[in-house]
Amino acid sequence: MVTLFIKHDVSDYGKWKAVYDSFAQKRKAYGVVGANVWREAHSPQTIIVTHDFNTLAEATALASSEEMKAVMGEAGVISAPEISFGEAIEHTAH
């Protein structure tokens, strides 16, 4: 399992969320098998999103796609996104 982490600031969460939701089928077509959305606790305009993939190639394809860049602009992303990739190596209950 590979996770794509994206952190960025948005001008309006409601607008961002509507655009994010409208991109769901495209995310699935890129290979997303799970996703999570967080707000930073002390900075509610900062959004952290994770997308899970089966392969790094799928994650990289979405992260580098022109579609993703266009959707971020449409959604009101106002900062350069911080993007990273991780492979799950351990999960515990505590």
Which labels suit this protein?
Alpha-Beta Plaits, four-stranded antiparallel β-sheet, 94 residues, 4 helices, alpha+beta
Largest sheet: 4 strands, antiparallel
> Class in CATH?
Alpha Beta
**Strands across the major sheet, in which order?**
2-3-1-4
Overall geometry: globular
Strand content bin: 25-35%
Strand segment count = 4
The succession of helices and strands, N to C, reads: EHHEEHHE
Count of individual domains: 1
- Uncertain residue segments: none
Mean pLDDT: 97
Helix content: 25-40%
Alpha-carbon distance between the two ends: 20 Å
Radius of gyration: 13 Å
The number of helices is 4
> In CATH terms, what is the fold-level topology?
Alpha-Beta Plaits
Question: What structural class is derived from the secondary structure elements?
Answer: alpha+beta
What does it look like?
The protein is globular. It has a 4-stranded antiparallel sheet, covered by helices on one side. Helix content is 37%, strand content 34%. The longest helix is centred in the first third of the chain and has 10 residues. The model has no long low-confidence stretch (mean pLDDT 97). The chain contains 4 helices and 4 strands, in the order βααββααβ. The protein has one domain: 2-Layer Sandwich (Alpha-Beta Plaits), CATH 3.30.70.
Question: Quick gist of this model?
Answer:
It contains four helices and four strands, in the order E-H-H-E-E-H-H-E. By secondary structure, it is of the alpha+beta class.
Secondary structure elements and their pairing?
Blueprint: E1 2-9, H1 13-22, H2 24-30, E2 34-40, E3 43-53, H3 56-63, H4 66-75, E4 82-87
Antiparallel strand pairs: 1-3, 1-4, 2-3
Helix pairs in contact: 1-4
